[in-house]
Amino acid sequence: MTSTNPRHLAIRTASERMAHAIELPCDMEGNLVTAQELFGCNTFSFAVMQERLPPESMRNFLDTIEHGKALEKGLADQIANAVLTWAEEQGATHFCHWFHPMTGSTAEKHDAFFEFNQSEALAKFTGAQLIQSEPDASSFPSGGMRTTFEARGYTAWDPTSPMFIMEGINGATLCIPSAFVSYHGDALDKKTPLLRSMEYINQQAVRLCHLLGHTDTDRVIATAGPEQEYFLTDKAYVAFRSDLKIAGRSLVGSPAPKGQSLDDHYFGSIPKRALAFMHELELELYKLAVPAKTRHNEVAPTQFELAVQYSEANLAADHNQLVMELIKKVADRHDFTALLHEKPFAGVNGSGKHLNWSLADNQGRNLLEPGDNPSQNLRFLAFLAAVLDGVHNHAGLLRAAIASHGNDFRLGANEAPPAIISVFLGEQLTAVCDALVSGEQTTEKDNAGHIELGVARMPQIARDNTDRNRTSPFAFTGNKFEFRAVGSQSSISFPLMVVNTVIAKGISNLCEMIEANGNGKAGLIQALRDSLAKSSPIRFEGNNYSDDWVNQAEKLGLPNLKKTPEALEQLRSPSVQALFEESKVLSKAELESRYHVKVELYNSTVEIEFEALSDIIDHHILPAALEERKTRAEGIMALKGAGITPSSGDLDDLKSLSGDIEALRNAYNKLKANMQTAHALDNAPKAVYLASNVVTQMETIRQIADGAEDQIADSRWTLPRYSEMLFHH
Hints:
Ubiquitin-like (UB roll), Creatine Kinase, Chain A, domain 2
């Protein structure tokens, strides 16, 4: 194998890699520190605060957290002094307000703890510095809420999310989870609306609990536990793939002889290099108190999943941002590139982020726990009806919440739920809902018994009260709902905020119906019956991938918004604007800004992919194809010169390759013309045009290029192939 071909060099490099061993953490005596002891060591948790604050101060702080009381200046100074001492003990020299701008990633501006004079540096950190900072807001996307000259923006500490230490190679920084707002108080981030939605659902859920007689409930918390899917690719391959480096996905690539057809990767033995990476990743997450719970191989080759245990919604959003950041950082240490894109490789399953969601009250009760007799559990049925109402009335908004260019390649592709939003409940709960609507009596079907294996020495297996439906975008899975359509590289903050808001509105609608009917049991049952009857079109128990469901959903009036531009238009609908203004989660201007930011992101992503594809065509595919054609033509001429008649196969192969070259040139010229047309369009029309003309044309080019790849000699092809990136590492 020649070393002059960069692809061959990448193969050799990847093949010679070994699993990276890391130095496990030890205490001062050299004893290994267990994962349990490591958990949260880099977080300024409530337990750490309790050790370092006077009891009265700690009580006042907990009142602030639990009852929304204003944080007094004196208490803020006490906390700042305590966290300064703790952070310095951890080796931190700087602090930052860590926030989630509308870019989808995180942002931070570091300030030293020191105040300087001519001869010394004095450590200082005040309550004012803890509570608030002022980064430049002009360079962050605002969707038109701000112009460049309006630079002032504020970050504000979110005291419900613990501060943490982020370690670097040569130092450490105290990170303060924060919200980000403009000079006029407009939300410029993803966290502020999420926090508002948590307040809204808390108000409405407490209201419903009180109507149901549960007056001991005075707080309800939205909880979430996302599952993060990702691919690991040796970074030697990525170094020679500008599409993977720049766009996060392969824009061309002929399928490998084997993909996921044997189903031998899913839940298989984790490869050594990947497992070594996972071990280090989990240790880093444990330090930050991120409850990483489950790891396994996913369906596609080199695809994996990390699931995190439940926490409060805003904390879950912070944790997921840390998960994505650390996956990338730790992967690099292990000579991998982590690909979080929804569809990094064509022909195999893409990646999602199943967002598990539930509600818990201050008594520790899961409000979506059906219990042994769901038909008699009125609190559960009330919250179930509210969820169905919210999803039914705002299915289009939920689709918009997970809309992105990357997710368009995944939704409905026999690997992810379709663009049609529906709810799966399972046989037992469907029967309960149907019986309520019809007014008939229902008896519980014992789905939750045991499964007999027919092997005497094996234990019985407990059966859940419902099966799973992996094709459903919004599925009930025992005591929670799973929003399965969220994209793998997206922040969960926006979809989580939307879920909270639409379900809170569903709760509000049910409360109004109960209040109108009177507070007796009969009035409650009638409200449940009416609510479940109205939302029945959103319930679907079958195969969401089937064409029959597409036709049935259309008859039921359910939206089928296949592409991101049309899905995002939902954010401009009067009903969505009214919902967010009524709930005080987003003002009209804040909602409009998010529409514009998402459209701009879509347009920019497509334009970046166009540039990356152009680079690959100009510098890799066409040169290799032309050289291959030249070599073949010269070979045929040499045969003729030697008096040998070329075979018809030789001539056909040359014609086929020539046809692909001309087809590629024509398609490429059309793509460039389409992009020129797109540049002349405004934001929203441009997105529609890009989706219909540029993205589809890029897919056409991909098919031609992949056909050409199969005809070009291995020694001439410079791009790492699918068979190598997915299997040779």
